[in-house]
Amino acid sequence: MKTKLCLLYGGKSAEHQVSLQTAKAVIQALNKEKFEIHPIFITTEGQWIKGRQITEPVENVSDLEFKEDNSVLSNAITSLMDETGKPGYDVVFPLLHGPNGEDGTVQGLLELLNLPYVGNGVLASAAGMDKVIMKNIFSQSSLPQVKYVWSLRSAWQVNPEAAYSYVEEEIGYPCFVKPANLGSSVGISKCTNREELAAAYKEAFQFDRKIIVEEGVIAREIEIGVLGNDYPECSIAGEILPKTAFYDYKAKYEDGDTSLIIPADIPEALYANLSDLAKKAFKSLDCSGLVRADFFVTTNGNVFINEVNTMPGFTPVSMFPLLWKHSGMEYPELIERLIQLALERYEEKQQIKYSF
Fold first, then answer.
1. Distance CA 116, CA 134 (A)
2. Do 290 and 102 form a contact (C-beta atoms < 8 A)?
3. Residues 344, 286, 314, 243: what is their CA dihedral angle, to the nearest 10 degrees?
4. From 347's CA, which of 87, 180, 185, 328 has a CA 20 to 30 Å away?
């Protein structure tokens, strides 16, 4: 029998368009002989729209943006259940990036409905989405990081000059200002002076109520893919070589003005160290399924973990799938492996007793 697979994509997030690109790529790669593909599109307003089963390749991303009509209009719960009120799918693949999808909210819903789903659980998704919480956990796990501070919008509005002075005292320039709960380099700015810092705060607070400011270091950007549940494995390493000041949204998704070097030209000892740190980060957040672990490697050999991404870019030309392709796992195989990991984790959870 075919596996009845639900794809969740779109979402109420600044990364909505990235999610659509991911969904199209996954649909093209899925083996239609093994999987029934059932799409659910989430609009930017948060409306869930259940589409008809997909049996043919999708030509355009716009074909996945279903319109609201009586035949498909639904909501989060009814979209995922069948007419008898039972789970309507064998497994759900949330192809959602950013808040309201990658941050534990959808994962919590799927847990309540007792549906198997691909990727990280509630805790790992929530902690991995919030860069401040993630870095605090990494600190508890003694993972090496650059200096960082954070701020709430309310505190900044009351006394912006105090916020800027604190950054200058604790971090200095250059530094990077980021929304705490976002990805794909949305809302990130590099700052070299007070004027740029003020503009960066204004920009980042458009996307979140909390921001993080990180020390800028001159370093290579090395990334490793991690795959698994309790016993994660690492891909080979890759390197990001942006031609702009940093690897921003435009460089990632629009102009392609970035080189991805796979495999990264690094010594075996460094790769072994990065792999150990990637697995340690994975376990510290209690991750499952997949993450991409991002590192800084300075010219004098210092290694800092920057972050892990619990739902990394997932088109065939994104770093995570490319890392696994160069490690011997092609894109369709990677998708099937993630589905298998989801079902394995689900079966393990069914062993938990809820009465005594």
1. 25
2. no
3. -160
4. 328
Domain residue extents for the chain: 3-117, 147-215, 218-348
Q: What is the pTM of this model?
A: 0.90
* CATH code that applies to domain 218-348: 3.30.470.20
Third-level CATH fold of 3-117: Rossmann fold (3.40.50)
Q: Domain 147-215 is in which class?
A: alpha beta
- One fold for both 147-215 and 218-348? no
The string of pLDDT tens digits covering residues 193-248 is: 999 999 999 999 999 999 999 999 999 999 999 999 999 999 999 999 977 565 45
| Residue 74 pLDDT grade (very low, low, confident, very high; cuts 50, 70, 90) | low
